[in-house]
């Protein structure tokens, strides 16, 4: 471990870069010392982190006895704090890292873990819990479960809507590996049913509030919204590759991306991480840095819409979030105003006295490594007025413009950012246990490791940061595709959702010997759709129904997606476009192509009494056309 004084010295290296002092040789020497120190730390810490991470996965993990196969235990700690549970979010992020490593280099032991994870999540999706069940998807929003895959019934911040999209993202990585290696049937029949449920949830409940990733604030979370957009974009492309479709993905993704832009504070140049709630916080939160690193797409350049690590918004936000911790932690005292510091969750945090976390400090480094990857790949760095303060904090002489390797500014800018990123990793090394153990937090005053020991997410965060530093980028997810950057027509956000269908994933048997086969084509980006027969059709129902204040309209019918004729389980229509002259209520529902549907509308009064429309049942057969896989039905109350 480094002594803390050495961290201060290394932090000063950044200042020396900044001031442009003439001691260039000394600056290079001290930067090289920092680099070698971090190199050595990564070399020692990487195998230890893998070993401890796998120890926390049931049922064979050395610290996970009693956990079901494929279940990620958040921490082995069973008291003070009790983290002997499995969180959908944490598990998905951990397995996303595992799957990325597996895709990069085949490992049969990791493949067994991945397959066990798929099987465990298929079972978990069908576990009824305090958030609900699978029939309407509500149960997928449950945050955590017992490690034996039974429900957790205690009081908690629920629902948490980031779990389903993050799990879909992780599983899509393995599904694409199966496709690339000739195992299309396994991807279609074993993995896709689990993914499809999570995509249905994401498209249906994206615009409803829930608790944030820290499980404390109920509202709309930037981290959740960004993950949802990615899952829908990636899901639409994967569905096409599997010979099916996800019309809800294509329909809702532009709306989610549009909504994501509302979190940006243009006056103070940072993301307000929680809106429609927030308990009076200032909004500067590591939530937003985590959103950026988990949305990283090496093909997307420095796109701000998807908050890529090198985008001007993400860099301005990085500075704002990191700066918010400079003066509140004693262990950050004495570090230059532009040096790396310990990073927590948010400045108002009081959990365990509100300390820095390993995973958030690592995330601060990882975003910068991701930015460095993109700048190096595209051979240019663009400084805008928005990102200028970030760059000037490292290189005061920096000005707006685009710099290429032939310009004298390019290499100094890269070196300054790289040294800054390395200093965050040096802080993690200095605050880890001597044996490399990474708990959840370290004390804001003394730097002592504390809270949940051997936090699985901490190890995963280290491994992904180290991978980015080594230049290993995650696979593309389609951020640069048309759908990846598509906003609604006219630029007007809409909160409409698509009622999904949910089916228990019952095929959980993986064929043996699914070793690497003949790889398929490796595209640089996710291809655009080609016309093909629709498997699912997105049907938009538009009903003209005059209602009174406090009344709502539901769509009920003979198929499960319409509640099986039960009004309480029917689809709630949206009155966002309702006027006296055009009293229209709308809802979008995914229905199976070729399905015979009978339906009616009901009005639910403020007193919950149900009034059915007259006449016979309406009916139609869902048509399977080519291309868009969408249709609209216009009705009037009868």
Structure description:
Keywords: Carbohydrate metabolism, Glycoprotein, Glycosidase, Hydrolase, Polysaccharide degradation, Signal. Belongs to the glycosyl hydrolase 15 family. By secondary structure, the chain is α+β, with helices and mostly antiparallel strands. The protein folds into 3 domains: 1-55 and 298-471, Glycosyltransferase (Alpha/alpha barrel); 57-279 and 474-500, Glycosyltransferase (Alpha/alpha barrel); 530-636, Sandwich (Immunoglobulin-like). Helix content is 38%, strand content 12%. The protein is built from 14 helices and 20 strands. The protein has helices at residues 4-19, 24-55, 88-104, 108-125, 163-180, 184-205, 222-241, 247-260, 286-293, 312-323, 358-378, 388-394, 410-431, 456-469; strands spanning 85-87, 144-146, 210-211, 218-221, 264-265, 270-271, 274-275, 381-383, 401-403, 441-442, 449-450, 498-499, 536-544, 552-557, 571-572, 584-592, 596-604, 610-612, 618-621, 630-636. Strands 14, 15, 17, 18 and 19 form a 5-stranded antiparallel sheet that branches. The longest helix has 32 residues, at 24-55. The protein is globular and about 85 Å long. Mean pLDDT is 93; it is low at 1-5 and 520-529.
């Amino acid at each position: 471990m480094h002594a803390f004084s050495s961290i201060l010295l290394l932090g000063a290296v950044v200042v020396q870069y900044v001031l442009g002092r003439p001691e260039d040789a000394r600056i290079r020497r001290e930067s090289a010392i920092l680099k070698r120190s971090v190199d050595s730390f990564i070399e020692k810490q990487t195998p230890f982190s893998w070993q401890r991470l796998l120890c926390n996965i049931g049922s064979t993990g050395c610290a996970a006895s009693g956990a079901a196969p494929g279940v990620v235990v958040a921490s082995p700690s069973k008291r003070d704090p009790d983290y002997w549970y499995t969180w959908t979010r944490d598990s998905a992020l951990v397995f996303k890292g595992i799957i990325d490593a597996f895709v990069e280099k085949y490992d049969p032991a990791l493949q067994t873990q991945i397959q066990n994870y798929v099987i465990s999540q298929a079972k978990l999706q069908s576990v009824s819990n305090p958030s609900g069940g699978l029939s309407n998807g509500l149960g997928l929003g449950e945050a955590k479960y017992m490690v034996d895959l039974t429900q957790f019934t205690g009081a908690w911040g629920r629902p948490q809507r980031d779990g389903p999209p993050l799990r879909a993202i992780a599983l899509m990585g393995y599904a694409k590996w199966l496709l690339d290696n000739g195992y299309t049937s396994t991807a279609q029949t074993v993995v896709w049913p689990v993914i499809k449920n999570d995509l249905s949830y994401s498209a249906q409940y994206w615009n409803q509030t829930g608790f944030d990733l820290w499980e404390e604030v109920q509202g709309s979370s930037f981290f959740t919204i960004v993950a949802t957009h990615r899952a829908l974009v990636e899901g639409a492309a994967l569905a096409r590759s599997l010979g099916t479709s996800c019309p809800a993905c294509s329909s809702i993704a532009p709306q989610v991306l549009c909504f994501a832009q509302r979190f940006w504070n243009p006056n103070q140049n940072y993301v307000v991480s929680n809106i429609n709630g927030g308990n009076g916080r200032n909004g500067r939160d590591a939530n937003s840095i985590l959103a950026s690193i988990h949305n990283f797409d090496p093909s997307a350049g420095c796109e701000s819409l998807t908050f890529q690590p090198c985008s001007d918004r993400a860099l301005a936000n990085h500075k704002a979030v990191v700066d918010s911790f400079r003066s509140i932690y004693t262990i950050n005292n004495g570090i230059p105003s532009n040096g790396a510091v310990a990073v927590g969750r948010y400045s108002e945090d009081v959990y365990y006295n509100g300390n820095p976390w390993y995973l958030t400090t690592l995330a601060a480094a990882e975003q910068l490594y991701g930015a460095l990857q993109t700048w190096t790949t595209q051979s240019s760095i663009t400084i805008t007025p928005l990102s200028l303060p970030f760059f000037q904090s490292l290189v005061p002489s920096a000005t707006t413009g685009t710099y290429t390797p032939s310009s004298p500014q390019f290499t100094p800018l890269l070196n300054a950012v790289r040294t800054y990123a390395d200093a965050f990793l040096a802080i993690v090394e200095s605050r880890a246990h001597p044996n490399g153990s990474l708990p959840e937090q370290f004390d804001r005053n003394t730097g002592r490791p504390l809270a949940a020991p051997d936090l699985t997410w901490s190890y995963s965060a280290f491994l992904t940061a180290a991978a980015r530093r080594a230049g290993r980028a995650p696979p593309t997810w389609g951020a640069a595709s048309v759908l990846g950057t598509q906003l609604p027509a006219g630029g007007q956000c809409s909160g409409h959702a698509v009622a999904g269908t949910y089916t228990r994933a019952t095929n959980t048997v993986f064929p043996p010997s699914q070793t690497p086969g003949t790889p398929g084509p490796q595209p640089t980006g996710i291809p655009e759709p080609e016309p093909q027969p629709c498997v699912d059709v997105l049907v938009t129902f538009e009903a003209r129904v005059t209602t009174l204040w406090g009344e709502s309209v539901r769509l009920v019918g003979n198929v499960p997606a319409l509640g099986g004729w039960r009004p309480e389980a029917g689809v709630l229509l949206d009155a966002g476009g309702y006027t006296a002259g055009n009293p229209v209520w709308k809802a979008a529902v995914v229905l199976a192509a070729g399905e015979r549907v009978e339906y009616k509308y009901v009005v639910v009064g403020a007193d919950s009494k149900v009034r059915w429309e007259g006449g016979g049942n309406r009916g139609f057969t869902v048509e399977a056309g080519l291309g868009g896989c969408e249709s609209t039905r216009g009705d009037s109350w009868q």
